[in-house]
Amino acid sequence: MELLIDRIAERVGHDRVLTGDAVRERATSLWNSAPNPAAAILLPRSTAEVSEMLWLCHEARQTVITQGGLTGVVAGADPLGTDVALSMEKMNRIVEVDPVDAVAVVEAGAVLQTVQETVEDQGLYFPLDLGARGSCTIGGNVATNAGGVNVFRYGMMRSLVLGLEAVLADGTVISSMNRMLKNNAGYDLKQLFIGTEGTLGVVTRVVVRLFRKSSSRQDALVAMDSFDAVVDFLALLQTGLGGNLSAFEIMWGDYYRAVTGDDGHRSPLARDYPYYVVVEAEGGESATDDERFEAVLGDALQKELIVDAIIAQSAREAGDIWKVREDFEAVLEPAPCYLYDVSLPIRHMEEYVDDVRRRMLGLWPDAALYTLGHVADGNLHFFLRPNLPGDLHGPADRCVYEPLARYQGSVSAEHGIGLEKRNWLSQCRSDAEIELMRRMKASLDPQNLLNPGRVVA
Amino acid sequence: MELLIDRIAERVGHDRVLTGDAVRERATSLWNSAPNPAAAILLPRSTAEVSEMLWLCHEARQTVITQGGLTGVVAGADPLGTDVALSMEKMNRIVEVDPVDAVAVVEAGAVLQTVQETVEDQGLYFPLDLGARGSCTIGGNVATNAGGVNVFRYGMMRSLVLGLEAVLADGTVISSMNRMLKNNAGYDLKQLFIGTEGTLGVVTRVVVRLFRKSSSRQDALVAMDSFDAVVDFLALLQTGLGGNLSAFEIMWGDYYRAVTGDDGHRSPLARDYPYYVVVEAEGGESATDDERFEAVLGDALQKELIVDAIIAQSAREAGDIWKVREDFEAVLEPAPCYLYDVSLPIRHMEEYVDDVRRRMLGLWPDAALYTLGHVADGNLHFFLRPNLPGDLHGPADRCVYEPLARYQGSVSAEHGIGLEKRNWLSQCRSDAEIELMRRMKASLDPQNLLNPGRVVA
Question: Taking the model in full, what pTM does it have?
Answer without folding.
Answer: 0.97
